[in-house]
Design brief:
Pfam families: GlcNAc_2-epim (PF07221). The protein is mainly alpha-helical and 414 residues long. It has 13 helices and twelve strands.
């Protein structure tokens, strides 16, 4: 991180910037309300329209429940009924009434009836946030989701989440994913607050130790994404499908930012609860952020952060995805809060400048979810505008402490 110019004031202490974040977050929430469909929530197109054949999916539904719960706790009207609608969907056609757990689509109608850790982590996160929001049925849903995570996905021997199973919980996939474990870590932070159990912070630390302190630290502090059942790296995984939206080939700078933030949240949460903290949590967060900036930002000569890198840290998929910039700004937020060092302020402002100038869609609303290498709207990986979660959280985190989790912190502020 060189050649950075210090600004006079941190935006995190600026009342006008805080108001801007609030206004931006409210606009994102208002836009996303149109995503409601009879069986849950579905993605919107780039104009904010709900297509007649829009397909409900469980991840989108869970993320919407989580996001609308945060908005409801803030006091934004209209979100409570949307939370309840989503909870009903998770207790209805999205759930497997015979074997337990959740399908990716209603009754597994897309033909894929496997059960994924990534999806179940978001169901548990959604339920935990809805509990904090005080919604009926949320506590029961949370207990069920936590039970599924513990019975099927959590592997005590490996100290991490297993990836997926067949519908009847047979056929454990031989793949292990850093992405699902990263979102498992996020969920565990929320569960520690809502359930008041230190166990979840110990599990989060176990995952972080394996994925970041053991593996990413040996790989230039850019997380390795794909592993076999024994947690041996799979460097050629998806080499023929490098732009996969969930399991892309190579390395993903956006995940380095996201992990940096989560490590600092974990450190703060453990400190708050009087638990021991290893020094590497802060050190690894710094290294992850630095590597993501060094190898991801403007590496092809244009502003923005490329989606993926090859194993030589060269741009692989050059599209700019909105969630990557949201997580970059959020990681800079966490490092400012933790260290107070001015270089992170510079990055924070740089990321929000980019978001404002390139990603915010002032004509049609919300944010462009994907830009091409020329920074013009694109739709090769993520068509439409299906995700409130990343952008909305980016507007909230600069206004909240590192601990506790978002829903609990917002409730304490009321």
């Amino acid at each position: 991180m060189t050649n950075l110019t210090r600004t006079n004031e941190s935006w995190l202490t600026s009342a006008s910037h805080q108001q801007w974040l609030h206004n931006q977050g409210q606009a994102l929430v208002d836009f996303a309300k149109a995503a409601r469909v009879p069986l849950g929530f579905a993605s919107l197109d780039r104009l904010g329209r709900r297509q007649t054949d829009a397909q409900v999916d469980t991840v989108t539904t869970a993320r919407m429940i989580h996001s609308f719960s945060l908005a409801h706790i803030q006091g934004l009207p209209g979100c409570g009924p949307l939370i309840d609608h989503g909870l009903s969907a998770l207790a209805g056609a999205l759930q497997d009434a015979n074997h337990g757990g959740w399908y990716a689509t209603p009754n597994g109608e897309d033909g894929n009836r496997r059960k994924y850790a990534y999806l179940h982590a978001f169901v548990a996160l959604a339920a935990s946030s809805a509990v904090v929001a005080g919604r009926l049925g949320a506590a029961e849903l949370l207990a069920e989701a936590v039970g599924v995570l513990e019975r099927h996905f959590w592997c005590e021997e490996q100290g991490a989440l297993q990836e997926s199973f067949a519908e009847d919980w047979s056929d454990c996939e031989s793949y292990r994913g850093a992405n699902s474990n990263m979102h498992g870590t996020e969920t565990f932070l929320a569960l520690a607050d809502v359930l008041d159990e230190d166990l979840w912070l110990d599990r989060a630390l176990s995952i972080a130790d394996r994925v970041i302190h053991q593996h990413a630290a040996q790989s230039g502090y850019l997380p390795i994404e794909h592993f076999d059942a024994q947690w041996q790296a799979l460097p050629d995984y998806n080499i023929d499908n490098p732009a996969d939206p969930f399991r892309p080939f190579g390395k993903t700078p956006g995940h380095a930012f996201e992990w940096a933030r989560l490590l600092l949240h974990l450190e703060a949460a453990r400190k708050q609860r009087g638990l021991e903290n290893p020094e590497w949590l802060l050190d690894d967060a710094r290294h992850l952020f630095a590597s993501a900036c060094r190898y991801g930002w403007q590496v092809d000569g244009e502003p923005g952060i490329v989606y993926t890198l090859d194993w030589n840290h060269q741009p692989q998929v050059r599209e700019r995805l909105h969630w990557t910039l949201a997580e970059a700004a959020a990681a800079a937020t966490a490092l400012i809060q933790r260290t107070g060092e001015p270089e992170y302020d510079v990055w924070y402002q740089r990321f929000w400048d980019y978001i404002d100038l390139h990603l915010i869609d002032r004509e049609n609303g919300s944010w462009h979810h994907e830009l091409g290498p020329d920074n013009l709207p694109s739709a090769t990986i993520w068509p439409g505008k299906g995700d409130l979660y990343h952008a909305y959280q980016a507007t909230l985190l600069p206004r909240l402490p590192l601990a506790i989790s978002l829903a609990s912190a917002l409730k304490l502020r009321r």
